[in-house]
Every structure is written in structure tokens, then in C-alpha cells.
């Protein structure tokens, strides 16, 4: 059992709480029984970390509870965590439903959108390089494990839109300006929708590359939270 946070392996694991080391090592952390189980199903676990006196199928580090408290993100952590390998995917232009995310910054919003996209049967999410880190702990927790099931890739959105256009995928931006109401459009075989930054929305260059622009009619308030808006759009345009 490891009892000191000065242990070299523990020091490396603790570095994974910072994005620059997650990028450098191509690894990230998950915490709790549910997320560890979802990571196991996806075959992503490199090392399991636990305070339990039990045997697990993965390479396992048994640590003291005080060490676990230092590694964990929560104040009262569950007795299991895992070091996981990042999943690298590319754009698959032969699918039916896509969600493009332009510079989202709130971890909770990103995690909720990933979870909603999985629940509503969308095929892939494409994130701009400027978006919040996919492997931020708050993102992972908000996905409730959907991170391990939802195909995701990160790339320049203008490049992604160009590739989608080559396959005949219609791309729909979301905006409060120079847009038509969501009910104006009917579900098509292949569709992609762009959601924008929480404060600025979809950037003009990306909107200009879209085929159409839509908005959700609302009353009493100026705009919706991007995760809520995304769920409405995805629900409104199911696969056909």
C-alpha cells in the first residue's frame, strides 16, 4: 500500500489534475464507481487506484485514504479512481446527425451536451480547438459516463464543415440574428448543428459557412443556456 504523496507514481498521477500534463501524458483521471465502470467497459483504464483491500482486473495501486484524498477532486472521495487513456477519434462524414461546438467554455455545459447527445441518438460531436478541455474533471462528471460512449473529435470547425458539405450534410448554425425559427426546417437524412460560445455565440466565420441559421422562439428572456438550447435542437431534429 502506498502511504505517501511523495511516491513518484503518485506525484505523476497528481499532475493529471492539470491540463498540460493530461496533454503531455495523453492520460486523464476519473473518480467514483460509476465512472470507473464506464471507463472499464470502454477499455480505457490504464491503472486503477483504490483504498479497498480487493482484487481488480486492471493493474492496481492500493493507496492509503489520505493519499486518495490528495489525488481526488472531491472532498469525500469514493474509494476508487482510475488513470485512463485518452480516446482519439476523427470526423466520420458518413453519419446522420452531428453537433458542432464553437468555443464552449463552461465544463458543465459541455458535459451536459455530451450526455444529451448520447441520449438523443446523435452520432458525433465535433469540438473547436478553443473549447474547454474535454478531460476536465467537471466535464467528465457532468457526462455521467457518456464521454466513453459518445464519439467525439476536436478539429477546426471550418474544416469540419467543408468535409461535411462534401458528403452532402446540411449544416445549420444557431443565432438570434438573421435566422429563421426552428419550426421552419424539417428533419433531413443528414444534418449538423452548430452551438456557440456561452457569451458570444457562434462566430461569424462559422455562421457564414453554414447552409442555414435557426433560432428557438422564446419569451420573457433574451436567450437560453447553450446546453438547454442544444437539447431542444437535437430533440427537434431526430434521425429519420
UniProtKB/TrEMBL annotation:
Coiled coil spans: none
Domain RNA 2-O ribose methyltransferase substrate binding: 29-90
GO molecular function: RNA binding; RNA methyltransferase activity
GO cellular component assignments: cytoplasm
Keywords: Methyltransferase, Transferase
Any GO BP: RNA processing
InterPro entries assigned: Alpha/beta_knot_MTases (IPR029028), MRM3-like_sub_bind (IPR053888), Ribosomal_eL30-like_sf (IPR029064), rRNA_Methyltransferase (IPR051259), SpoU_MeTrfase (IPR001537), SpoU_subst-bd (IPR013123), tRNA_m1G_MTases_N (IPR029026)
A Pfam family hit: MRM3-like_sub_bind
CDD domains assigned to the protein according to its UniProt record, in alphabetical order: SpoU-like_rRNA-MTase
UniProt similarity note: Belongs to the class IV-like SAM-binding methyltransferase superfamily. RNA methyltransferase TrmH family.
Stated name of the protein: rRNA methyltransferase
The species this protein was found in: Massilimicrobiota timonensis
Organism classification: Bacteria, Bacillati, Bacillota, Erysipelotrichia, Erysipelotrichales
